[in-house]
What we know:
The protein starts with a helix and ends with a helix. It is built from twelve helices and no strands. The protein has a domain at 147-219. The protein has helices at 2-20, 24-35, 41-54, 59-73, 77-90, 95-107, 116-127, 131-142, 149-159, 167-183, 187-200, 202-218. It is an all-alpha fold. The longest helix is centred in the first third of the chain and has 19 residues, at 2-20. 78% of the residues lie in helices and 0% in strands. The radius of gyration is 23 Å and the shape is elongated.
Amino acid sequence: MKQESAKTVVAWFKIAEFVSRGEKERALALYRLLAHAIDDPAFVQQLEGDILLSFSDEAAFERYAASAHLYAKQGKTNEAAAVYEHLITLNPSTDERLKLLIDLYKQLPKVPRTFEATQLFLRGLLHRSEFEKASALLQQLDEIGTDFGMIHQELVSAWLNVENPPTEPLKTHVKKIVDFYLSSAQQKSLQTFLMTLKMLHALLYQEACFYMQDVSTAK
């Protein structure tokens, strides 16, 4: 057993050496031999994705997607979410994988998590002026209790810069921003947001004030 384990360690070092020398085919060939000893097919796909990524091979995305799918199928939700987050960070132009990631988030325990990949994706949508898509995805994220207050504010600020911005969907996001600042006790930031909103859109400012009154009365 020890001899076999030592051979495996040496083989992994050889793979790292091939990668450092840019010898893609030799690295993959040796890895595929080692992969037969790994009993987790999702992990096998993930590792191959890592090797392909080191050579800037776009096939890495396919391996990562296959890995995430297999992890989810095995009920390994944390692992699947981690791979999808990695995928979105590498390639933030696909919303299909973000939707899958959101579904996984809903299955995870409500513990503190990082959502950097999701924020990156949403900011990409804003950069491309895909406001309606960003709005829909943000509302899905709110269902899992995730705090995306700053993204809501970025969406409102960007959407108000277009001609004739839609008032109704923006009301939803304005309320989320107010909730964010109230829950985090950021009164100065809230006042700054309200003053900016007053200058940009009087109706939405009025809506925010009414909402704040309702929240205060409810308490």
